């Protein structure tokens, strides 16, 4: 799973987030007041304009403070009834059709079918729910204003804030009901689609014997199911497991002896590894270069996306992760290490064989290093390794001895894991999130529900945004404005990284530079991976970019990023969604909802509804 930035702890995130929210909100409020004063000055003069703006702000605040929950709920029910009259439930029928025929187009023989099905269902749910609530929210209020139906509400003791909040609440309830139905149906579809059971091909089992001729086990394969089969390894008692193929494996147990095969009949478990919620303990990554010296980063192999960095095979180059908080109470059976290693080949070799590598554990204080654990890295799979409680290590005289994992390698809760590529002229690509210790497992169903909660956050933002724009724009224009804000918000994280790269000088965060530098690179056809010589012209260009990016970064904070609220990558990758991320997304959504509600209420109050 791609995790470009570490998820901060909620307790450390909330303070700066509130300060930033108050700063940006206050700045926008001041700018809105200035624009209103300038507009009124043209019509009535500066003094009268100041008085009108002052009285308008006070009146709007009193209007918000005097809202009634009963009237808000009554208006919300009207919004729900309006949604039903517009046959909003047709979206559920459309979703049912998508689920019914999705099996025709989704390939169960893909590299990771669980990720494929989950990504498809969550994307379809997100699209339909947000699209339906967006259309409802942007066209409802303008239609009432155009048809003079709004006068029947405003002539009653109803405040503008109640109208805006009532519509937001009503459409949000409609979207929530749709999301609940789609979420349950989608969960059932995914579970049913990935569920399958192979059988052991007993005719293909071959004996495995030791040097003395004693039987040690069996090896073979499974039958073909869902366009794939597994290699089988059984011990002498007839129990074992399959290899890791297409993101999963199966456990095998001997159920009865007889003439059905070399040992008898077998029972194969449901696939494990497809629908999981791993709880990872992540470490901090650093590198050694090909001479074994500390390096700030790995080797670039020319990829424009520098998320993963590479280490050279057949040299002293290594990637080292330092894990904190490792205790024997938490890991009683050893350290369950899981790895995602990407391979870059300078020559083809045997594609199916993979590239050999080694993993060692190391004491970060004493430097004691264990003997190597060897593995073969294959693309698009997670390699697992259990570091046992007793390890072998090579002594200074060339001998070996057994040492204890926690007594000899863990120092103050810290331990290091060293990765090396063993084949010359081949490369391993890794990122900080690619190695982790598996602390435990959560519930997949609960993890799926948390992902649907991220869709719910997006739906609330889209609904509130549509209602806000509909208070002062016509329906089609409000729709275009909402889609534009959503589109710009998708680049918010990129603008933040670009500004950070410009300030720190670390081009790996966002290669290519700012607007002026990017324009210069396009004109001169200079690759974004090439560092520019620090000439006076280049330094001047970077300075201008910094001044341009500062207001761009401030402006990007005004636009919600729906992609940052999505957590489907966690679910499809088999990782538990952290509570810190859910809490941060929830508070961010609440902040945007509050700002959009106040803006919508103020805009509707400023609009002369009766004359429209």
Describe the structure concisely.
This protein has 612 residues and is an alpha+beta fold. The chain folds into four domains: 10-194 and 444-484 and 568-611, no CATH class; 202-268, no CATH class; 279-441, Jelly Rolls (Sandwich), CATH 2.60.120; 491-560, no CATH class. The chain contains 16 helices and 21 strands.
Q: Key terms for this structure?
A:
Jelly Rolls, 6-stranded antiparallel β-sheet, 612 residues, 4 domains, alpha+beta, globular, 16 helices
Describe it:
- This protein is an alpha+beta fold.
- The chain folds into 4 domains: 10-194 and 444-484 and 568-611, no CATH class; 202-268, no CATH class; 279-441, Jelly Rolls; 491-560, no CATH class.
- Helix content is 47%, strand content 18%.
- The chain is built from 16 helices and 21 strands.
- The longest helix is centred in the first third of the chain and has 35 residues, at 10-44.
- The chain is globular.
- The two termini are 52 Å apart.
- The mean pLDDT is 85.
Q: Termini, distance in Å?
A: 52 Å
Strand order of the largest sheet: 1-2-3-4-5-6
The largest pleated sheet is described as:
6 strands, antiparallel
Q: C-alpha Rg, in Å?
A: 30 Å
């Amino acid at each position: 799973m791609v995790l470009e930035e570490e998820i901060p702890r909620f307790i450390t995130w909330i303070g700066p987030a509130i300060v930033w929210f108050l700063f940006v909100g206050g700045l926008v409020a001041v700018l809105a007041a200035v624009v209103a004063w300038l507009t009124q000055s043209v019509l009535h003069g500066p003094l009268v304009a100041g008085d009108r703006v002052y009285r308008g702000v006070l009146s709007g605040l009193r209007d918000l403070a005097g809202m009634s929950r009963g009237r808000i709920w009554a208006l919300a029910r009207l919004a729900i009834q309006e949604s039903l009259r517009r046959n909003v439930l047709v979206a559920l029928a459309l979703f049912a059709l998508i689920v019914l025929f999705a099996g025709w187009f989704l390939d169960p023989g893909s590299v990771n079918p669980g990720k494929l099905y989950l990504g498809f269902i969550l994307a379809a749910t997100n699209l339909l729910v947000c699209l339906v609530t967006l259309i409802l929210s942007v066209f409802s209020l303008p239609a009432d204003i155009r048809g003079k139906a709004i006068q029947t509400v405003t002539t009653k003791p109803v405040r503008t804030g109640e109208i805006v909040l009532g519509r937001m609440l009503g459409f949000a309830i409609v979207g929530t009901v749709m999301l609940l139905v789609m979420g349950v149906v989608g969960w059932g579809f995914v579970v049913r689609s990935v569920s399958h059971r192979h059988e052991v091909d007993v005719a293909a089992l071959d004996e495995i014997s030791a040097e003395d001729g004693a039987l040690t086990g069996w090896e073979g394969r499974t039958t073909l199911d869902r366009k794939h089969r597994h290699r089988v390894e059984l011990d002498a008692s007839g129990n074992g497991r399959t290899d890791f193929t297409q993101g999963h494996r199966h456990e095998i147990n001997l159920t009865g002896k007889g003439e059905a095969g070399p040992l008898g009949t077998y029972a194969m478990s449901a696939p494990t590894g497809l629908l999981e919620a791993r709880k990872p303990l992540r470490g901090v990554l650093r590198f050694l270069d090909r001479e074994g010296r500390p390096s700030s980063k790995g080797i670039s192999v020319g990829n424009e996306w520098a998320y993963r960095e590479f280490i050279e095979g057949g040299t002293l180059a290594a990637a080292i992760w330092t894990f904190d908080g490792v205790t024997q109470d938490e890991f009683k059976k050893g350290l369950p290490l899981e790895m995602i290693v990407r391979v870059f080949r300078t020559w083809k070799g045997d594609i199916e064989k993979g590239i050999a590598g080694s993993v060692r554990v190391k004491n970060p204080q004493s430097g004691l290093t264990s003997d190597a654990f060897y593995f073969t890295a294959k693309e698009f799979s997670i390699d697992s390794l259990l570091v046992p409680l007793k390890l072998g290590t090579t002594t200074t005289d060339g001998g070996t001895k057994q040492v204890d994992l926690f007594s000899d390698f863990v120092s103050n809760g810290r331990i290091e894991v060293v990765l090396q590529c063993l084949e010359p002229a081949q490369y391993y690509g890794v990122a900080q999130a690619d190695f982790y210790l598996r602390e435990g497992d959560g519930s997949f169903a609960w993890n799926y529900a948390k992902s649907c909660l991220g869709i719910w956050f997006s739906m609330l933002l889209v609904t509130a945004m549509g209602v806000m724009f509909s208070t002062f724009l016509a329906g089609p224009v409000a729709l275009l404005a909402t889609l534009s804000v959503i589109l710009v918000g998708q680049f918010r994280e990129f603008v933040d990284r670009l500004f950070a790269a410009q300030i720190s000088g670390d081009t790996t965060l966002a290669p290519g530079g700012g607007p002026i530098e990017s324009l210069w690179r396009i004109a001169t056809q200079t690759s974004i991976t090439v560092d520019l010589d620090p000439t006076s012209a280049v330094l001047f260009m970077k300075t201008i970019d910094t001044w341009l990016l500062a207001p761009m970064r401030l402006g990007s904070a005004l636009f919600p990023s729906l992609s940052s609220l999505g957590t489907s990558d966690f679910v499809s990758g088999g990782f538990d969604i952290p509570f810190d991320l859910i809490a941060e997304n929830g508070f961010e959504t609440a902040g945007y909802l509050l700002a959009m509600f106040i803006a919508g209420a103020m805009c509707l109050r400023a609009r002369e509804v009766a004359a429209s």
